[in-house]
Amino acid sequence: MLTIGIDIGGTKVAAGVVDEEGTILAQALRPTPADRPDQVAETVADVVRELSADRQIEAIGVGAAGFVDETRSVVRFAPNLAWREEPLQKKITELVGLPVVVENDANAMAWAESKFGAGRDQDHIVCITVGTGIGGGLIFDGALYRGRWGMGAELGHMQVVPEGKKCGCGNLGCWEQYASGNALVAHAREISTATPERARILLELAGGSIEGEEVTEAARQGDEACLEAFASLAEWLGQGMADLAAILDPGCFIVGGGVSRASDLFLDRARDSFQRRLTGRGHRPFAEVRLAELGASAGLVGAADLARQR
Amino acid sequence: MLTIGIDIGGTKVAAGVVDEEGTILAQALRPTPADRPDQVAETVADVVRELSADRQIEAIGVGAAGFVDETRSVVRFAPNLAWREEPLQKKITELVGLPVVVENDANAMAWAESKFGAGRDQDHIVCITVGTGIGGGLIFDGALYRGRWGMGAELGHMQVVPEGKKCGCGNLGCWEQYASGNALVAHAREISTATPERARILLELAGGSIEGEEVTEAARQGDEACLEAFASLAEWLGQGMADLAAILDPGCFIVGGGVSRASDLFLDRARDSFQRRLTGRGHRPFAEVRLAELGASAGLVGAADLARQR
Amino acid sequence: MLTIGIDIGGTKVAAGVVDEEGTILAQALRPTPADRPDQVAETVADVVRELSADRQIEAIGVGAAGFVDETRSVVRFAPNLAWREEPLQKKITELVGLPVVVENDANAMAWAESKFGAGRDQDHIVCITVGTGIGGGLIFDGALYRGRWGMGAELGHMQVVPEGKKCGCGNLGCWEQYASGNALVAHAREISTATPERARILLELAGGSIEGEEVTEAARQGDEACLEAFASLAEWLGQGMADLAAILDPGCFIVGGGVSRASDLFLDRARDSFQRRLTGRGHRPFAEVRLAELGASAGLVGAADLARQR
Amino acid sequence: MLTIGIDIGGTKVAAGVVDEEGTILAQALRPTPADRPDQVAETVADVVRELSADRQIEAIGVGAAGFVDETRSVVRFAPNLAWREEPLQKKITELVGLPVVVENDANAMAWAESKFGAGRDQDHIVCITVGTGIGGGLIFDGALYRGRWGMGAELGHMQVVPEGKKCGCGNLGCWEQYASGNALVAHAREISTATPERARILLELAGGSIEGEEVTEAARQGDEACLEAFASLAEWLGQGMADLAAILDPGCFIVGGGVSRASDLFLDRARDSFQRRLTGRGHRPFAEVRLAELGASAGLVGAADLARQR
């Protein structure tokens, strides 16, 4: 029994036919009509038609960044695509004539990792997606947890510093201002401005345009500023995991997202930071801290699999 | 079908026969043998014998402060009674010959409130017990959430101030250092020392010994210092609820515990603080903030009912 | 014996002939050639010529925002006018043939207040200029304190929140991010976005464009959001004064700058906050917290008087 | 012309005859009558009589921990010796018939370092005494700065963490809770409890009783926990220096006190932290960060020299 998973990103719509083992049998890609958010449903329909031409498809799972309502039908608010109360399920169903479920993309990713990836032996999982911001997905007793209105697991918006750095969400001191990819790059830039002699490798590599790739590469070559920025990210990641463990006592954390490709530069220290900061340490086991396994297609695979559960 | 619920506190063991509607049919009380923690099981057995003399009892539910393991059998660590890896279930079962389950007391209270109290119309509940510290209980999809090892919902130990006030758990800046009854009293004491002219009512009432009751009474009479301490508690309570809502998106919060008896002095402001601080406000409903309804017997009732689920 | 004081602002150059009692005998004004910072010296010379046409002038004192070097000659760095190592003294002296001293504008203001204004009976003064940012001036043993390189009294850049809000200076958590006019307006805007119902008066008054005047007026009319923003400013102002008193033990604080025109909305609470937070309170006198008296011409008068001391 | 300097500590009274070059010509020592604070003056008189038996002594300078009033006569409050409004000058003068001045001990130390020690080529000095707490002394334009009521330079009580760790002074988040010797030891203990495997060297050395010496020795042998505690002290020391430089723009910092004997373990990093955190860096020189030179006798020498200035 096959389903199609769709991952709607800011620049492209990735789609795949997925079987019950989480294997992708076929893929297709379209550019996201970002300036016409009302056209996204048609793009999805188009790619579904291509992929379902010669296959029996049971249902469609769509993953998108933003708040998705508890009926898995409507995107209430999406920062990237300027959606407000977008009835995505209804639009796509009308176009393709198949059952559709809509999911938050980080939830979809978490589900894929829990079923087919790093968490397949675990029942209580906190999945942390460290990209430009921080997203999350929660697996409790083997099921995806969505919250009362489908808006749970916005892990990046716990406050970790009272009156701290301004966040895009309007609040101050959110976790993602200290432990995300954007925080990492901002930190490295700050150090390189303040004390350029500590950022020689970075400044040489980047030539004025410091982005995540340059920070990672410079850190690997021993740049002091970038190593410090990664160390700070790791400490804050551990702090957030300690907070989440106090609340949720998961069996494992799974760290994914774009920044996790540089896990050699921060994951050991994040684990150490978590263990030093966990309340009740000494009287309880430590949750494992694992790296995500499925890479960039996790969202697509997870959405496809969640479409089976209607 | 009747069960007995037991609430093991630092000073007394409260027990009650509870029916399926959560009604207490009979009660009994014993002093806790606090200096002989190994004797607690016998005290429990004793009270069970008394209560079960003329009734058919199906099972026993025991609530205790501390980390209870995921099999609901062993108290791994209890600060009040100096228990370490105490096999409470085994001991009591051997003494009374009935099935026994052990639960964390805040979990038991949360369960009672969710089934028979303030949350009976809700499926996703975060229960916050504001006493000397802060405890918690989580109800997800109508079931009690315990975490992988039974240690979830230690809500009081989220860090809210980096490098903040020292907590009894060994960490710095835990939530319960800012929003619990102990925090309230400490705060009022500090203000009264620093600026006695703002604490005239309190100082007159307390005559040197400032405890929670004096702080509450003085606040009701308009004492500036105590009103400020309650305002601070309310703001921090709201901040913590905003953090928990970002993670868990509950339908409601239930605030209980000893401090909640003074809810007129802080609950409205805590709700307001929560709403001002919630990430994504404007694009999502606000969880309700409700007062617990079952009072001091919630723990006993919850433990009794949880004993039905084996 | 007369001197001329000049206050170089971002939009206008204000000049005045000042006698030994601090009285302004004549004034003149020119627009600042802000897009031609190298022309400022000529504007100053022009206004000096006008004012000295029929008077005997002994020296010129120039006040400017920015870091002025310890010889009172060179503006090393001025954010508003894009000056770097600007030899202002030399340029003006060459043009007008009179002795010239250059001073930081907040230092000049502090000096005027200490000699002719709110601090004339005091020898140890910390002057706090609360405008868009926070500037300062220090009077120790009756003399202006400049520091080793003339860069002392940058009071707005003490860190008060570790990893706090980003400051224009590149650091995080500077005092002026919490207690300046800009902080006030930002805070009021945030509350009005988060909970518009608490900012009804402000939103009606401001009609979309919230600036300092609207926040002040709305606070006076009882707007909840604006009162909260002022309360926060007052608390932080008091905290900073407590820190400065721990270090400097002044006899008084003088609060000036544009925001001080709304002193009825924050000064009492700032004083109270200072007294609650002062280390060693109970064993030491409290420094007075006074309002500046000389208004907008303080900078000009102070610069003129400092020109007498060469 | 000779004077006698006295350093009243918690356990011993150290005295010395000092010449105008700051050389100690003779010394004497007595135990402090700590349980009879009213007897301290007699102990001082006794040691003065011994040292002045065969010399012409002009005056006596007494250094003591605590708040000393602006007339240099009365100790208003001393935490160690339970003094309140102790008229030390009057008492000692009556007993020995010589002029007496009383000084805060950290001020005396700072004066000695500025005149005979690490700061003899400097006019603007901030002296930081890192011992169990943090004391300070300020030299401005070559003179000791005392503040309006003699209580300046309580540097350890700047707040660096809002609502941070409780300080003995009653406030929260004081600098000395993060950068003093006590903070160092507390930090090392915390890490060794949380993660004993990172503190193996320390735990072996200390055998249960962890104090400053063990932390220092273990750090020198590479103990991870102790190195982390020193790194944290260094970072916070640098932050405090950056705050002080924003306010005071000194030409140099002098770091003394008991912890400075381990300067190899933190001073380079403290300097680096200071430079990274200084506001306006890039547009101003960096103050030097120097080690104190005079060791434990600095207080005695400074008090003796200050007695010359009456």
Automatic annotation (TrEMBL), chains A, B, C, D:
Its EC number is 2.7.1.2. Keywords: ATP-binding, Kinase, Nucleotide-binding, Transferase. It holds the Pfam family ROK. GO terms for cellular component: cytoplasm. The keyword ATP-binding applies. One of its GO terms (molecular function) is ATP binding. Gene3D superfamilies: 3.30.420.40. It comes from the Bacteria. One of its GO terms (biological process) is glycolytic process. Belongs to the ROK (NagC/XylR) family. This is Glucokinase. It comes from Nonomuraea soli.
